[in-house]
Automatic annotation (TrEMBL), chain A:
GO terms for biological process: cellular response to starvation; negative regulation of autophagy; positive regulation of TORC1 signaling. Residues 213-242 have a biased composition (Low complexity). It comes from Lentinula aciculospora. InterPro entries: Gtr1_RagA, P-loop_NTPase, RagA/B. Belongs to the GTR/RAG GTP-binding protein family. Signal peptide: none annotated. This is GTP-binding protein. Component of the GSE complex.
From TrEMBL, chain B:
Transmembrane segments: none annotated. GO terms for molecular function: GTPase activator activity. This is Nitrogen permease regulator 2-domain-containing protein. Belongs to the NPR2 family. GO terms for cellular component: GATOR1 complex; vacuolar membrane.
Amino acid sequence: MKKKVLLMGASGSGKTSMRSLIFSNNPASSTARLGATIDVEQNHVRFLGDLILNLWDCGGQDAFMDSYLTTQRSTIFQHVGVMIYVFDAETGQMNKDLEYYRDCLDGLTHYSPEAAVFLLVHKMDLVQEPKTTMFEKKREVLQKATGDVTITVFGTSIYDESLYRAWSSIVHTLIPNAAVLNKHLNIVAAACSATEVILFERTTFLVIATSTSSTSSPFSSSTSSSTSISSPTYTSSSPSASDPHQMHPKRYERTSELIKAFKWSCSRVREEFHSLEMDMYDFTAVLDEMTRNTYVMVVVHDPTIETAAIKLNIRMARKKFEELQGDSIGA
Amino acid sequence: MGTFLPRIQSVFYAGFDVTAGPKIICQVPEGLITVPQPVPSSTFPSLPPTPSSESAPSPSLPPLPASRNSNLSLPAVVPLTDIRPNYRNFSSPQGKISNNQAPLFNFEEVSKLVIPGPALCGRLVICSTKRHRVMGFPSLLRGEKYPRNFFRFNLCFVFERTADLSCYEPIVRKISRVLASCEEESGFLSVSDHVAIHAILEQLYEDLNSYSETSIPIDQFNSIELKIFPFYPNPPAVKDWMVPVALINLVRRIEDNWDLTMAKVCRYIDGVNHVSRIAHLADCDIKLTREAISHLLYYQVIMTIDIFQYSNMYTLRKSIQWLADEAHVKEECGPYSTKPGFPLPDWPKLLHLYSRMKPGRTVLEWMEEYNVQELGVDVRRFTSFGVIKGFLRRVHRYPIFLPGPSKTITQSPTSDDNTISTTNLKRVRSFTGMSLELPIQSPESPPLGQHLLRGRATHTAIPAISLSSDQATSAPATPRGRINPTTSNADANEPYSRPRRPSAAERILESVRNRDQNLTRSPASSRTSRINYSSEPSSVSTVVPGIVDTANTPKEKSNTPMQNPRMELGLAASRRQSLIPPMPATNVPPNSPNIPRLALNPPPRPRIERSPSAPTTRVYNGIAAKSVLAPVPLEYPTDLMELLDGEHHADELAVKFEAGWPLLEDWLRRIGEGHNGRVLIIYR
């Protein structure tokens, strides 16, 4: 199954860098050496076995944008699954940006009314403190400019884990049967007496599904889902009652980021990352391959449970997940 | 042709702006390439004006209105009417449109190829619009100092779409190279203002169009030096069997300082001599001769046609449809093709004659059928007129040897070895594919050669030759010794069905064979007695339908049906017209069978000549062919086998082995019989 993902935004807003970080596994520092994207660069990313993300990285210069909105309008905006519009948090041309954004939104709603829209306020690392205020302001402006199309806004930066959170959410919308995966992850969690079981995509390490449905779920927002404006990662959330272990709300994306960095380090010494076992003071965690395209992380707070046992369970669950993976993507 | 250089319609310099994207920075003449105007904004009040991407600095224009996208008010431009999404104007970037020239095209059509992605950078890129072509060499320079880490530029030339751009390619490459290195050295392009670049463009445009050369200083140390050389394409390879035809009077242009070979060779270019003959006549090395002809081809002062032989076949090309109506064709054909003293036939008549040429019909047959002789048409000139004008094309014969399964021969005492059988009776297969029983009495007689060649070949069913009598009932030439269902050839007298009706040549050759065999027994056999067969519809599709050995066929005073008188006439005519001198019959084995009984003049051959000084031809049968009575050369050259791969046509083989078509055909037939397989002729 192919899903077309449009990545648009002003020139220099960070689209290609994002793509390089998440999908090509380059470290954040290497993105400084990228050049401007000429017209549209298409990438096919095999995400989960059958799911192929057809990523359209559209150059943001005026000449290109004008062309997308006029001569190439139907080509660009047809058959879109997700549109990600990137705003530079520090831009001096907000009006111009907004205008192009509106135009793109028009095109999208016309040609692909079913597409999901995500707005990323990027380069948040450059924003002065307090970041949350600034983010909120931006979000309001964007909401106003959008009108009544459903959008989800994230604040992101390639230099921290926020980008992983945003992209995990984005990709999550493309996996139709996440609920099923969720259910089975719960079964695994129960079998391992685990606090949490998380399923990652192998190459990008984006979170696909988790076993918990706590408030700090990586996907849904803390407020009601109908308005679908997720809480920005920059708000601090106090530990809720459902989280006795006081797990860090950003643990998912942090994990993604850290493991990816570690994988990259491994590749630099020409080794391949396979699995991770942690036997810590307060928890035990095992990160291991689940299927061909996924990794699973099992976090257990029960001190009596050995990592070997967890690994055994994972091994036994493998077959089921492979089966599920085929189903979950199935058209 | 090469001397006309296409005119440069426009020169422009394009770059990549990190905000605006690919854009034309300057162009000469101005305004020819339009740039898309973005839609003006009405919704959002703008921040400080961003300069419009299209405008080159032009002091005459008022400051742009503050909006995201500005419109330049311009003459001769469609005025902005409503503000709608998707509506854009295309306007010239500057106020003036010079020379009242209409815009050529819009930059957007080509911008993706003028400023392309990294894959196309550093390569010559030519793109076309509806009426023009744009040639450029996009450059991509990496550097930390540049915004977004790269500097892109492209200096392009615009031509008419139909122009031949080959001579400008080195120019475009060089300009790009020089500018790129200037940029690397001193940041010339990224730093300098557009006025300097504009001046360069102007000078390029003027000088290259006017003088085809220019010298532009860039800074203290660098300059652009350009000169356009007319560019002829490389000529095709020159083959020995090609016949050069002069398009200008070469001899008159020979000067003292000319290359010696060239001077000698030019004198023999007469539209009849082929290259190897020219080499011989001019007494030059063949390789040097080929070089000289190649040079003449390069400068397009000669063209090549093929060797004229009566056994050639021609056919019309598609271009006849319009060439038949061309005045120059209609008017020139008659005078060129008619022999002096004859009235000029009118063009419809000539056209009719041309249309009667088709593959499978040789020139001689065509001549006979349409009484070309009586019209006084010089056939050689007639056909070469058609070839030169381009509406007639030679159909070549490409022989190809296909090895095939051999059928067992019930009796085959003769094998491929060269031993002479001690038995008196040998199974001999004639070249026609018959098996004959012959007593061998004289080892050195020609039939020996025949035996050796005929080995294990199988043949079509053929009527047997009864050798007891003088008459040799010959089978028609099974073309090329086809593989036949095995029938026991034991009984040579069994009548077989005849595959096809032999031509006169074949009959003659056959008769010679039989006669020669008979000679051993009965020297008195008349050569005329052989012809005795029944006709049979041809079932062969691959064989040359009618091989008529025309002028070479010796005049036959006996009862060869039909063809002789015409052939004689043809001989006479060809003798007059062909410029190939008759071959002395003494030194070299004749190409065609000579009938010992007839006193023959060595027939003039309008075909490949073997020159007396040519390297010795192969020894045939160990018998020096000194006299007219010499027997037919029976063996074929061994090299010939390798060349029967369908890639070498008969002319090439003929020149290489110095054998005319009839002899070549004979050899091919022999090969077909002598080996397991068959020889097919492909017409192309």
